[in-house]
Amino acid sequence: MTDKAISPLRQRMIEDMTIRKFAPKTQHDYLQRVKNFAVYLRRSPDTASAEDVRRYQLHLTASGVGVPTANQTVSTLRFFFKVTLGRADLVERTAFVREPSKLPVVLSPEEVACLLDAVPALKYKAALSVAYGAGLRVSEVVALKVGNIDSKRMIIRVEQGKGREYRYVMLSPHLLELLRAWYKAARPQGWLFPGRDRVRQMTTRQLNRACHAAADMAEIGKPVSMHTLRHSFATHLLEQNIDIRVIQVLLGHAKLDTTALYARVATKAIQQVMSPLDRITLTQAEPPA
Hints:
Elements: H1 3-19, H2 24-41, H3 50-62, H4 67-84, H5 88-91, H6 109-117, H7 122-134, H8 138-142, E1 149-150, E2 155-158, E3 167-170, H9 173-186, H10 204-217, H11 226-239, H12 244-251, H13 256-260, H14 267-271, H15 276-285
Antiparallel strand pairs: 1-2, 2-3
Helix pairs in contact: 2-4, 6-10, 7-9, 7-11
C-alpha cells in the first residue's frame, strides 16, 4: 500500500470516517486493516475482486487469527467497500465468524476487597476502585477529569464512552472519600489520574499492569483484568436485585442483550430461584384441606 498509489484513496477513507465521527483510534485501526489487505493483494485495495475478498478471508483463517480480529477485519472491509468505494457487491462476499459466547470471569465481593487492599499506590487504588465502584471501562477511567466528579449530586459524568456516548453513574460515599484522599495527596489538575508527566492522562496499559499486579499480590486464582472489575460490578448489582435495565444504563450498553449476559453468572440470584422440583415436593407435602 504505497503512498503514491493509495494516498487519495486513504484520504477519502479518512474523510468518510471523520464525517461519521469515528474515534482517532478507530480510524487508525481501520486504516491499518485496509493496509494489511493491500499488502496481501500486492496492489491497491480498490482493485479487489470478489474472489480476492474470499481468498483473503481464507488467508486470515489459515494464519490462525482469532475470531475478534477476523470480525474486526470484516467490519473494516465492509466500511471500505460500501462507503469509500461504493462497492456493495463486495460486502456480500464478507462473512462474520460466529463464536460461542464465553461466560465472563467474575470476582466475589470478598475477592474484589482483597484485590483493592493489595494495591500499594493510592492513585491506582482510587482508579481501580472507580472501575469496580462505578462499572467503568478502563478507557473511561483514564479519561476522567477532576470536573467529572460531582460530589453534590453524588454522580460521575462519563464523557466520550464507547460509541462516543455520555452517561452518568453513581458516586458512592466510600469512593468519594477515596478520591478526596487522592486529590489531597496529588492535587491533580485536568486529568483525574495523570500519567508520569502529569500533562497527559494515565495510559490504559499502566492501569492494566496495576490491576494484574494487585491480583497477583492478592493471590486470586482467576484470570483478572480491568474488565473483570466491570463484570463484577454488573453481576453484584444483579445479585442485589437491581433492575437489569438500570444496570444497562450504568454500563452504557446499547442493547439489553449485552447486559443480560450477567444473568448467567449471577450465582446468588440463581441460587435464590426455587426449582420446580421443590415446588412440587412442597405441594405434595401439604395436608389436604
